[in-house]
Structure formats: structure tokens, C-alpha cells
Amino acid sequence: MADTATRPETPSDLRPSGLTGLAAAAVALGVAQLSAVPFGPHADSRTAIGSAVIDLTPGPVKESAIKLFGTSDKLALSILVLVVIAVIAALTAQRETRRRPVGSVAIVVAGVLGCAAVLSRAGATPIDVVPTVIGTVCGVLVLRLLVSDRFGKKAPQADASSTDSPDRSRRQSLVALGFIGAGAVAGVAGAVLNRLNSSVSGDRTAFTLPSAGKSVPVAPPPSVQPPGVALPPFITPNADFYRIDTALSVPQLSRANWRLRIHGMVDREVSLSFEDLQRFEVVERVVTLTCVSNPVGGDLISNAKWTGYRMRDLLAGAGIHSDADMVMSTSIDGFTAGTPVEALTDQRDAILAIGMNDAPLPIEHGYPARLVVPGLYGYVSATKWVTDLELTRFDRAEAYWTRLGWAARGPIKTESKIEVPKSGQVVPRGPVTFGGVAWAQLRGINAVEVRIDEGPWQQAQLGASYSKDTWRLWSFPWQANDSGAHTVSVRATDGTGTVQTSDEADVVPDGATGWHTVSFDVA
Ligand SMILES: Nc1nc2c(c(=O)[nH]1)N[C@H]1C(S)=C(S)[C@@H](COP(=O)(O)O)O[C@H]1N2
Ligand SMILES: [Mo]
């Protein structure tokens, strides 16, 4: 062995194939995933890496990804991360030799990055990196094994490497494939067990929503729904409610583990358990939520009845300093929103919601508790899985999306959209009813006008107004007489008498504006 330094390695060594790298990566990821099960969700490096990538991705890239993949954006991200890891593993493993462990070093670097990702997550503790370390070690061991003497060096009794090399190479490939299979099985089993282990769906099913005291809203009368046109229901069923969040896996937070800490610029810090909430009056409010990323004509808007507690009541116990102008709310997974103090304390009745449409909050909508603030886009107000409220100032603190270039304040703009007809729809000649929704939370909707082609603006018929904080459905009966291509446009007038602007603004930095126009054909 004294001559190893001078003897060239490669002639008698088997060059590792890309497959060995895939095997090492599969084992590292699979073992990390499976060994994370007893440690709980914070130890899941796969989710941590994905979440860290989401956080580190520049805002504009994130937006294009959301545009491209829609609500599958997280699946697309997971696949992308796996492909990147596989390519790097395959390429670096090919450089691995017994004396220059390039691939092993790459695995260790990836492992260190994985540990950093785990530790960067809210609520993680140092012990949570253990599964990532175990996975990394196993990945290195597999790679070393595959390039070891058993496969990589001429066996002592063999005559020439040229004759036994194809055999060794085949053996190496078979063993590598075996490791890839084992890694995949461990990974899938780990992911499934992690999910079952942490799911709070049992906790949610066991929860009976308290009924509201005096503060029950009037049930929406049937007249909120214009007849004769297939519009979305005034109240969006939970299953159809739009969903937007940065959570790669939905946070699983039980009522027992939930606490709400109110601190910062206050006289007394307050910490409430879920049980403590019973001290406060239960209220119900119908509020339309809207996402700032909703393009003109988009679907990121829904309306629900929320059950919960007035934020005003919860905050009162803390004694807010008069120079605090922002409440920075934080979720269990580290999302933050900056909301003006007055929006949480004035008469609009912002609530800490624990129920949605008479059911406990669905897990993906924030179980066990989230904020609902009439009049503000979700990114500055509607924190799901909320656990922390810090009283601070807009000139001192910046929330998640504001750091990424979105406006610090996000009042909802007056907008309207057409649901019927859909773009490209063929409308039969004769009488037809078009329709859609309009919204200007806090101000309400006074009127909706519709224009066919470049004709005059005509009044649409309005469904009954429920409240200023909810959308208003509208319909427009029309005689489809002229065959051919047409357009229909809509604009709303809000409760202040202001007509929705025709100026087209992008969703960044504070919400899209412009008139929604749909092209259709009469035949
Ligand atoms: N924890 C957490 N809360 C969040 C978000 C998030 O990414 N994480 N996104 C916000 C945004 S941008 C919107 S529009 C609303 C959407 O609420 P929904 O998914 O219940 O419709 O949630 C808000 N609350
Ligand atoms: Mo949003």
C-alpha cells in the first residue's frame, strides 16, 4: 500500500457512474425522512429545505412560479428540488474516487445546508438536525461502499481489470439500483408516517365550535343571490374557498399546543391558551377575503361566515402603547403580516377566527386560529395558524411580503369581475343573463355597470347588499341578437361614490386595478 500515492487510481478503479450518486442521494434523503418520524415535523429536512427555498426565492420569481403553476406551485417546487439534488448527486459522484471523495464532500455540504434549513425554521431546536445528520452519514457510507474495493478495485485474484470491469460495473449498478429503491421506500414511508404522526385532523374533529352569544349576524337573505344566472354562491363552501400560503406542508397545530402571545409595545404581556379564549364573547361575522395577488378577473376571492373573538377584546388586556401603529402577527411556521393597530381595534370588528361556515377552521385555513380583518388584503392581515402578536411600528418592522417588495399597507381596492360569460363562451341567440361579483370591503358596493362592445355603460341588477365587508353579486339581462364576436366589460361604484378605475395596475405592489373584459361569441 506504500505505493498508493504514485500509482494512478483510475486504471484499476471503476469510475463511479451517475447511478452511484443517485443511490447515495436516495439513501440520504430516504433515511433522513424515515428517521425524522420520532422527532416530529420540525425535523423533516425535506419540508425545511423546500420552505427555505421559498423564503430565499426572489419575489418576482415567486410570482412567475405562482402564475405558471398556480396552486400546484408547491408540488412543482418539490419536484424541482429533487431534480436539482439528483443532478448534482449524479455529477459529483462521478468525480468520487477512493482518495478524492468529491461526491462525499458534496453530500456532506448538502447535509450541512439541510441542517441549516432545519434550524432556520420557526420552532426548530438543535436536536431536530439529528435525522439530517443520520441521512447524510448513510449517504456518504453508500457512496464510499459503491466506490470501494468491492466494486472499484481489481480483485486480487482477478487477472486484468479489462476483463472483470464490465462485471464489476454491472454489479455496482445493480447494488446502486437496490439502494435507490430502498431510499425511495424509506422516503415514502417516512413522509406518510410523518403526516399521520403530526396530523391534527382528530383534534379538529373533536372540537365543538362554541355558539355565538348576542353577536350573531343575520342570515344572508335569498335575495343576495341574483336569479337566472350561474354565479358562485354568496357564501363560499369551505372546500371551494381559495387558499394561498407559503406553507409547504400545512402546519399541524393542536388546540392544546396553541398559545397566543401578545407583546412588544404593551403595558403587560399577555399569553392566552385556547381555553383562555372562553373568557371572551364569541362573535360571528361574514367577511369577504381577497388576495393582493388576484389579477383582474381572478379567482383569489371568497366569502365566508367566521366565528371567533374580537381582536379589540383580546388586545384590550395588554394595554397598547399610543405610539404603536402596527401589529406584527406571526404564524407557527414563521409567516408574518403587519396590520395597522386601528384595523384591529376599530369598529370593523377584526376577529381571531376559530370557525369558518359553522365548522372548526379547516386545517389549511389556519386551524386552530387565524386573523380575519375586513378591508385588508390577506398578506397584511389574515395570518393563519397565528401564535404571536407583537405591537410595534411600521418604521421599525417589516412583514414577510413587504420585505419582498410589496406595499406595507394593503387596503382592498374597489373591483368587479364577470363570471358569466366565460372567456370564449358561445352564447345562443336570444335572451341571456350575464353576471358576476363586485367588492370594496369597508366601503360596500353602490352600483355595477356593464358595457357590451364599445356601447354605453348600463346599470346591472344588484343582489341584495349584505354588508360593506362582503362582496355583492350582480346580473345583467341582455338580448343576444347579433351573431359574431363581442366583448363585455364591468365596472363598480363603491359606497363612497367612487367609480372603479380603468387604470390597469399589476398585482405588485398593492393590488391589481382595471376593468374586467370578457370576449364571447353569439351564434
Ligand atoms: N400563516 C400564513 N398565513 C397566511 C398566509 C401565509 O402564507 N401563511 N398567506 C396570507 C395570504 S397572502 C392570504 S391572501 C390569505 C389567504 O387565506 P386563505 O388561504 O384562508 O384563503 O392568508 C394569509 N395568511
Ligand atoms: Mo394573498
Q: Provide the spatial order of strands within the biggest beta sheet.
A: 2-1-10-5-6
Structural class, by secondary structure, is alpha+beta
What sort of overall outline do the alpha carbons produce when their principal axes are compared?
globular
Secondary-structure arrangement, i.e. CATH architecture of the largest domain: Alpha-Beta Complex
Protein name: Oxidoreductase
Keywords: Membrane, Transmembrane, Transmembrane helix
InterPro entries: Ig_E-set, OxRdtase_Mopterin-bd_dom, OxRdtase_Mopterin-bd_sf
Transmembrane segments: 75-93, 105-123, 129-147, 174-193
Structural summary, described in words:
This protein is globular. The longest helix has 38 residues, at 161-198. Residues 1-12 and 153-163 have low confidence and may be disordered. It has helices at 18-35, 45-56, 59-69, 73-93, 102-120, 130-146, 149-152, 161-198, 201-205, 311-316, 341-345, 400-403; strands at residues 259-264, 270-273, 282-290, 301-310, 326-331, 336-340, 351-356, 359-360, 370-372, 386-392, 415-420, 426-427, 430-439, 445-452, 458-459, 461-462, 472-480, 484-494, 516-522. It folds into three domains: 13-155 and 162-198, no CATH class; 213-404, Alpha-Beta Complex (Sulfite Oxidase, Chain A, domain 2), CATH 3.90.420.10; 415-522, Immunoglobulin-like (Sandwich), CATH 2.60.40. It has 523 residues and is of the alpha+beta class. It has a five-stranded mixed sheet with strand order 2-1-10-5-6. Strands 3, 4, 7, 8 and 9 form a five-stranded antiparallel sheet that branches. It has a five-stranded mixed sheet with strand order 12-19-18-14-15, with no helix packed on it. 31% of the residues lie in helices and 22% in strands. It is built from twelve helices and 19 strands. The structure holds the ligand Nc1nc2c(c(=O)[nH]1)N[C@H]1C(S)=C(S)[C@@H](COP(=O)(O)O)O[C@H]1N2 and molybdenum atom. The site of molybdenum atom has 7 residues, from loops.
